[in-house]
Amino acid sequence: MHICLIDIDGTLVRTGGAGQTAFAETLIADFEIPEINTNVAFAGRSDRAIVADLFRDHGISASDENWLRFRRGYLSRLDSALRAHQGRVLPGVAELLAALAARGDVALGLLTGNIHEGARRKLTHFDLWHWFPFGGFGDEHVERCDIAAAALAAARRHLSPTNGDTKSNGRSTANSQIIVIGDTEHDIRCGRSIGARCIGVATGQSTAEHLQTFAPDLALATLEDLPSILSLFDE
């Protein structure tokens, strides 16, 4: 079995800014911040890293208590933000997920900076959550490489849930490869940290030319180039 780990924002979907809206509303309402610093980078980063920067820039203690308070507020606002914004599933995503699932030799999971419940709500909104039985998320980890390691561990547990060996229900992982798909250089870097082959897709904030400078195995304009993607799994 191959393992394919996919990013969410800018790779599978564009939410139209729903996540950032829920972030800003939470800081304003729950932490009494009158104006949000819009210079904090969101793309390719974990929710915990983004919140840590926002807390620092607005003089809020980065305590566990404040993180949990922020998390509750963010999740309470995310569903309405998703409904209010004009988000969409990105080109080629539905076809790619169906093709990978149909192969029978690919375990699909997530590698995202979103917290688990935020990921679930976003992908449920776009009817994509059912494709992903495991993943690595931004609940505990700040660095994407740590999330990548957690995603790989979750994949191995998913494939070998009973005894931790290299087979589960006849599905061997002895000759498997790991492929990470994402829209930023952070996805490529964290993919390399777990020995993955990497696909960079320019449906987020980065161009294919920019992604190519980080030496992915593929740099694509969209995920509509299904033959090129599937060829990585056959090499």
Notes on the protein architecture:
By secondary structure, the protein is α/β, with parallel strands linked by helices. Helices cover 45% and strands 14% of the residues. The chain contains 9 helices and 10 strands. It has helices at residues 18-31, 47-57, 64-84, 93-103, 116-125, 144-159, 185-193, 208-212, 226-234; strands at 2-6, 13-14, 88-89, 106-111, 135-136, 167-168, 171-172, 178-182, 197-201, 218-220. The strands form 3 sheets. The chain has a 6-stranded parallel beta sheet, with helices on both faces. Strand 8 (178-182), helix 7 and strand 9 form a beta-alpha-beta unit. Helix 1 (18-31) packs across helix 3, helix 3 packs parallel to helix 5 (116-125) and helix 6 (144-159) packs across helix 7 (185-193). The protein starts with a strand and ends with a helix.
Uncertain segments of ≥5 residues (pLDDT<50)? 163-170
Total strand segments:
10
Relative helix content: 40-55%
Q: What is the radius of gyration computed over CA atoms, rounded to a whole number of angstroms? A: 18 Å
Largest sheet: 6 strands, parallel
Number of helices: 9
- Order of the strands making up the biggest sheet: 5-4-1-8-9-10
Integer average pLDDT: 90
* Helix and strand run: EEHHHEHEHEHEEEHEHEH
Q: How would you classify the helix and strand content by structural class? A: alpha/beta
Query: N- to C-terminal separation?
Result: 13 Å
Shape: globular
Residue fraction in strands: 5-15%
List keywords for this structure.
235 residues, globular, 9 helices, alpha/beta, 6-stranded parallel beta sheet
